[in-house]
Design goal:
The chain is an alpha/beta fold. The chain has one domain: Rossmann fold. Helix content is 45%, strand content 18%. The protein is built from 7 helices and 7 strands, in the order βαβαββαβαβααβα. The protein has a 7-stranded parallel beta sheet, with helices on both faces. Helix 4 links the parallel strand 5 and strand 6. Helix 1 runs parallel beside helix 7. The protein is globular. The mean pLDDT is 95.
Length: 179
């Protein structure tokens, strides 16, 4: 399975890096491929290191203005012209999506894939890994959108929620038939 992970390139503390590394090791040990923003810094580096060290493949999609941060030694690295092309390529190269902790860029990527799913433009499974309760507020907002009629499809058809790395991977495997 080619798993796209949307996440931060920020340097973060252990409450975020430990679960990210755990998820990365699960990807690698299962023989899956990481599709990610290609950066070799912060949480992006933690995940790439974990996948590679556990035997998984790395497919990066960086963007021109961040190319100096691209990871050397990835199995594949593409440099997109802009952020819109980057998102498009990340999704094209992936079978499934995991949303990990991140800032505005991660939120932008997350809402784009959910919008595509909402309109039936993709059926890729998407799971939000809610590390340390980081996305509790966002989960509540999504539920409110559903309850108040802002979503034309049930929330459960758009996204799954996981509190732990193993549950996130299990969700993807279940929704792709163990791909």
């Amino acid at each position: 399975m080619r798993i796209c992970v949307f996440l931060s390139a920020a340097e973060l503390d252990d409450r975020y890096t430990r679960p990210a590394r755990e998820f990365a090791e699960l990807i690698g040990k299962a023989g899956h491929t990481l599709v990610w923003g290609g950066s070799n810094v912060g949480l992006m580096k933690v995940v790439a290191d974990g996948v590679q060290e556990a035997g998984g493949r790395l497919v990066g999609v960086s963007v021109g203005f961040l190319a100096n941060r691209a990871r050397p030694g990835a199995d594949e690295m593409v440099i997109a012209h802009d952020l819109a092309e980057r998102k498009k390529l990340l999704l094209e190269k992936a079978d499934a999506v995991v949303i990990m902790v991140g800032g505005t860029g991660t939120l932008d990527e997350a809402t784009e894939i959910l919008e595509l799913k909402k309109h039936g433009r993709t059926d890729k499974p998407v799971v939000l890994l809610n590390t340390a309760g980081f996305y509790d507020g966002l989960k509540e907002q999504f539920r409110r959108m559903e309850e108040e009629g802002f979503l034309p499809r049930p929330l459960a058809e758009l996204i799954g929620f996981a509190e732990e790395p193993a549950a996130a991977l299990a969700y993807l495997e279940e929704h792709l038939g163990g791909a």
